[in-house]
């Protein structure tokens, strides 16, 4: 620590150059924060997945519905504990830009399938009693200032009603929360019975099935048994674990993790060149000063450490500022885009990774000039000065 | 007979310049008494600075031994030499070689970073050193805010702050006007006479050499002549 003041003064020797280098570090870690949060959002479904929950979808595409009649056959499959279903409604509230997921489903079955969802039992009963009832997640309630007792219109983009109308009205009977910090509550659930009765087409179908395997049952065997039952039928199925389903759903948008890695790789490579150049220049400019330090008794390793520390300090200042501003932006984006892309979050793992990258990049950018400084011959350097 | 502080025995130094070997010092034997103030004069390339570098542990002889105090420094490793220099030698250069990013106070504190002193103790000792050189009112000034003479005074304060046994000065007045040079040399004389510092000073200037107790003439790698002032 006693060297810190000296290192600090050296860092700010050329204020403009240091500031510009820090700015490039700042931008790199701002990008890191934003892209990590986006990557986290795409992965959050996978992380929040329950290993004992399976999802059954149409083998060709998720868009194709499955017959409602499959429900009893799936429930009767060996190893299946319980089953429910959901469908994609795809409506919007007030404004076409205010889109959030809405799913018609079975009230009691759905909440039994997702024990991590919490809602007072009287609200669940109220929802089950009211065919036009709906429940919403806490995030949604806060974003649109909705409360129990409100009646909200949802404009359908797919499911027109049998009377030709596109407006579906729901009474909010409950607000649920989740125990899972990675889980989103930015969606609306309403009764499948109301959906089935009122829709103009697609009757007798559901979007997908969700099932829980019995304790001790092998989820892979259960999935194979279900798919085998419906093999060679008009609606063949593909059953997968919830994690695999979330992963394949996210992959519809491309391999986000790889895209994020490629962008960040390019950014950090450029960053290394920029900061490595800064450190090299800085050492070149003060060869005689470094020789004086050695003359005074600073060891080769001390000189190496001082130059490396300067490089790391530049990275840490720019990086932590970038990460901090990134965190603020992610908070804002999570609120603004929470219903469209839930789960945006700058995780502790990403933060620790970023700090490790800052230190690693500081060492990488500073190592060559630092070794040069360490190997400096006092006599030659003083003679040149 | 006074106590000997440094002894060079059979010291030769040869540099390799391309394929050619250049012998800068040849079989040199010198004894430097404790508390002496010696001026080393001689033409350029005669080996004066090389001699200073060997005494300060900045360079090693090609043959022979260099002993300063109780230590035979010619056989020390680079790390051992670094540690040894930090407590035993004070260097004063022609161009002061202060660090421009540090104030006078912090420049003087620099060698003390290598000790276990806390920041208060470092500041206290640097304050005393600056007082000795008459710069107590300039502690917060940066080198660019000081005159050449003041910069050299800061460099002297830095050289004495860790209370070394030997001060090595390489043309300490070479960049100063006559009047300021006399002030600096007077200061060195005070350090020698009142504070008991042993000083070896390389100079081209005969008037500067007059401030020393005796002068050695270095020529063609040997000490040709010694005279007491």
Structure overview:
Chain A is of the alpha+beta class and 385 residues long. Chain A folds into two domains: 4-45 and 255-384, no CATH class; 48-251, no CATH class. In chain A, 55% of the residues lie in helices and 16% in strands. Chain A is built from 14 helices and 13 strands. Chain A has helices at 4-11, 15-47, 70-75, 107-113, 121-129, 138-144, 192-198, 219-229, 242-251, 256-285, 287-296, 300-337, 348-375, 378-384; strands at 53-58, 66-67, 80-86, 91-92, 102-105, 117-118, 133-137, 151-156, 167-178, 188-191, 205-206, 208-213, 237-241. In chain A, the strands form three sheets. In chain A, strands 4, 5, 6, 7, 8, 9 and 10 form a seven-stranded mixed sheet that branches. In chain A, helix 12 (300-337) packs antiparallel against helix 13. The radius of gyration of chain A is 29 Å and the shape is elongated. Chain B has one domain (4-228): Rossmann fold (3-Layer(aba) Sandwich). In chain B, 31% of the residues lie in helices and 30% in strands. Chain B has seven helices and ten strands. Chain B has helices at residues 48-55, 78-88, 104-109, 119-132, 148-160, 178-193, 206-209, and strands at residues 4-17, 20-33, 37-41, 63-68, 71-72, 89-92, 166-170, 198-202, 214-219, 222-228. In chain B, helix 4 (119-132) crosses helix 5 (148-160). Chain A binds chain B through residues 2-3, 5-6, 9-10, 12-13, 288-289, 292-302, 378-379, 382, 385, and chain B through 53, 56, 58-59, 78-79, 82-87, 91, 93, 95, 97, 99-102, 106, 110-111, 113-114, 119, 158.
